[in-house]
Design brief:
By secondary structure, the chain is α/β, with parallel strands linked by helices. The protein has nine helices and ten strands. The protein has a six-stranded mixed beta sheet with strand order 6-7-8-3-9-10, with helices on both faces. A four-stranded antiparallel beta sheet has the order 2-1-4-5, covered by helices on one side. A hairpin with a 3-residue loop joins strand 1 and strand 2. Helix 5 packs parallel to helix 6. It starts with 7 loop residues before the first strand and ends with a helix. The protein binds adenosine-5'-triphosphate and magnesium ion. Magnesium ion binds next to helix 1.
């Protein structure tokens, strides 16, 4: 949960993502997005296929430069950054978790988790020490020397979570983090993310099309057709209305918006 005077870590101001479409037309995948996320927030970005989730994720993760609008990351205008500056920012301040884990098969879990540290000038022995600490945090102390191919999907995702954490990033971006997992393992991974959020107070952003997954977060931002269609912060609802479990009553009703019922 964000602290009382938490500062914004992400500010998108009038951000558009525009793809060329045909010889002359432009397609707006994100239309004038204004969004502020504070330090320590746990947010889901949800929307149906084509709503702009990946476009948004690529921008938030500085994988795609902002060409229209302004992106402030911890107050710094990263829309003016060059590629090398964006890549430096990514390696130091953003932890990524992907649906398909993106671990390197030929390396052990320990080596995989240690890898992001090698971009930050940390000696080999220290890298392995830190990586081992984080593998312990995610419950993999007895699997450190296994290769990704020799552990379960849930364990692979745990290792990927440890890898996202080793650099103590300011934000963690998780793209469909449980998309390849069965429902029990999904629960395990989402609970782990929640525990880690409480432990480190890192800003966590989950991008998903799955409402059940999205509901793990404290705030749900719903995209529809490249727009922010809804933005509900359950911590505020809980505090201001003094209701228990405010999530039970709120569901982003995308189906109805698309096909109004008579
Ligand atoms: N490279 C591209 N060129 C043109 N249009 C694109 C390109 N990439 C995405 N789009 C369009 O932008 C819109 C948003 O795409 P985006 O990939 O962000 O959606 P999404 O919410 O991630 O969908 P999904 O759940 O299917 O992954 C879609 O209509 C898509 O067709
Ligand atoms: Mg997508």
């Amino acid at each position: 949960m964000p602290l009382k005077n938490a500062k914004p870590v992400i500010e998108l101001i009038d951000v558009c993502k525009i793809y060329p479409s045909g010889p002359k037309d432009l397609f707006y995948a994100l239309k004038n997005i204004n969004l502020t996320l504070k330090e320590g927030e746990f947010v889901s970005i949800i929307g149906k296929s084509g709503s702009g989730k990946s476009s948004m994720m690529n921008i938030l993760g500085c994988l795609d430069p902002v060409k229209v609008g302004t992106y402030l990351f911890s107050g710094e205008n990263v829309s003016t950054f060059q590629d090398f500056e964006l890549s430096e920012l990514r390696s130091q301040q953003i932890g990524f978790i992907f649906q398909s884990y993106n671990l390197l098969d030929k390396y052990s879990l320990l080596e995989n988790v240690a890898l992001p540290l090698s971009y930050n000038n940390i000696g080999r022995k220290e890298r392995f020490k830190i990586a081992a600490e984080y593998l312990k945090v995610v419950g993999l102390e007895d699997r450190m020397n296994h290769k990704p191919g020799d552990v379960s999907g849930g364990q692979r995702q745990r290792a990927a979570i440890a890898r996202a954490l080793v650099n103590k990033p300011r934000i963690i971006l998780a793209d469909e983090p449980t998309g390849n997992l069965d429902s029990n393992t999904e629960l395990e991974i989402l609970s782990l993310l929640k525990d880690l959020h409480l432990k480190y107070n890192t800003t966590i952003i989950i991008v998903t099309h799955d409402e059940a997954v999205a509901l793990y977060a404290d705030r749900i931002v719903t995209l529809f057709d490249g727009l922010v269609y809804a933005d509900v912060d359950f911590t505020k609802v809980e505090a201001e209305l003094e209701v228990e479990n405010p999530k039970a009553a709120v569901k982003p009703d995308l189906e109805n918006k698309e096909e109004p019922k008579e």
